[in-house]
Write a structure and sequence with these properties.
single chain; two-stranded antiparallel sheet; 2% strand; globular; disordered C terminus
Length: 241
């Protein structure tokens, strides 16, 4: 007897499921190897981008949108929160007010990420804009911060609270253009594969790009009508093909 998913899920869905598995591995690695956990979170973000490309070019399935949100909960809600808790506890321990504040912030991050993913699936999935900081972007910021060596507990706790609030804000973010997503993907992959090269140049570059989009994207990164039309035509050709 074949498993139920045979013939029902696409290649894109398989990549989505691997995204969830990477999130689990990041949670397991976080207490003993924060850098490895950060790299796994960032690798999950690469997989998240890849499944979207595959879905546009080779098709997805009816289960695809649901699998995507479920996988994102593991990789971009639970995993980055576990990473922050692990790093903070290494400095502050597990008892007292400060660890409790950090744990509350991590729990809030997970809750707001889940809310944001649900709202995105219900309202924004078919649009070229979205309200609130994407969970993937929030997780990339946290992962890149750890990977460049910023592991001060105060900075991480403040950042996790700020990102939790921004994920459910009404700030509107436009989708990345294809060329910019490609550039981001290349830098992203290099940050995961060779994080120590040239004084951690690629993790720093990734963090810079992520923060630039986080802060400047809603105000300055808006596609022109011609660019949007070109992207839509490309997507339509890919879907029809």
């Amino acid at each position: 007897m074949q498993p139920r998913f045979v013939g029902r899920l696409s290649l894109a869905d398989a990549v989505t499921v691997s995204n969830a598995a990477l999130g689990f591995l990041a949670v397991v690695a976080a207490p003993t190897n924060a850098e490895l956990a950060a790299r796994l979170v960032l690798l999950a973000a690469v997989a998240d981008g890849l499944d979207g490309v595959l879905a546009r070019h080779v098709g997805s399935s009816a289960a695809g949108p649901y699998l995507d949100s479920l996988a994102d909960v593991a990789s971009f809600a639970v995993a980055p929160a576990a990473l922050v808790v692990a790093v903070v506890r290494e400095s502050w321990g597990i008892d007292g007010l400060r660890p409790a504040v950090a744990l509350l912030g991590a729990a809030l991050f997970v809750a707001m990420a889940v809310v944001r993913l649900g709202l995105y699936t219900a309202h924004d999935a078919k649009e070229d804009t979205t309200e609130g900081v994407p969970t993937t972007l929030a997780s990339v910021v946290l992962g890149a911060v750890v990977l460049v060596g910023v592991t001060g507990p105060v900075a991480l706790v403040v950042l996790v609270y700020v990102l939790a609030g921004l994920m459910v804000s009404t700030i509107t973010y436009p989708d990345l253009l294809a060329r910019d997503a490609l550039i981001m993907g290349v830098v992203h992959s290099l940050a995961v594969l060779v994080p120590d090269v040239l004084g951690r140049a690629f993790p720093y570059a990734l963090l810079t790009l992520a923060l630039a989009y986080l802060v400047l994207g809603p105000h300055f990164y808006w596609r022109s009508t011609d660019e949007a039309s070109t992207d839509e035509r490309s997507a339509e050709r890919a879907e029809s093909g």
